[in-house]
Design a protein that fits this description.
By secondary structure, the chain is α+β, with helices and mostly antiparallel strands. It has a domain of 63 residues: SH3 type barrels. It contains three helices and five strands; from the N terminus they run αααβββββ. Strands 4-3-2-1-5 form a five-stranded antiparallel beta sheet, with helices on one face. The protein starts with 9 loop residues before the first helix and ends in a 6-residue tail after the last strand.
């Protein structure tokens, strides 16, 4: 009797050696736990006025750096302004929409600081 073996498909063979995550979601839970949660800072009236002044100076296609409050932490993003909506009071940096009320600081070459 002849023992003929067919070769295993490479895709199926590769699956045998893929890492196994026995505790599904554990890594994500640890990452979330390590995140430092901070309260939102209250800006002074002077700081609010300064931000408003800077927001009025910004034009589309300018590169700016924005620090803003998102999901219980402060995030900093640098990118091109794609949209400024005065009515809904939002600023779009590439694909990120930021509410004016969440912005804590703005930096750009056009600002005279």
């Amino acid at each position: 009797m002849e023992n003929i073996r067919t070769k295993m498909d490479r895709g199926i063979r590769a699956k045998q050696f893929m890492p196994f995550d026995a505790l599904k979601g554990f890594r994500e839970a640890i990452t979330e736990k390590e995140r430092i949660i901070v309260p939102k800072r209250d800006l002074s009236e002077e700081q609010k006025e300064e931000l408003e002044r800077k927001l009025r100076q910004i034009k589309k296609k300018e590169i700016i750096t924005v620090e803003f409050f998102q999901n219980s932490e402060y995030v900093q993003i640098t990118g091109m302004v794609t949209r400024i909506d005065e009515i809904s009071r939002t600023l779009d940096i590439v694909n990120t929409r930021i509410a004016f009320r969440d912005i804590s600081s703005l930096r750009c070459g056009i600002f005279q600081e």
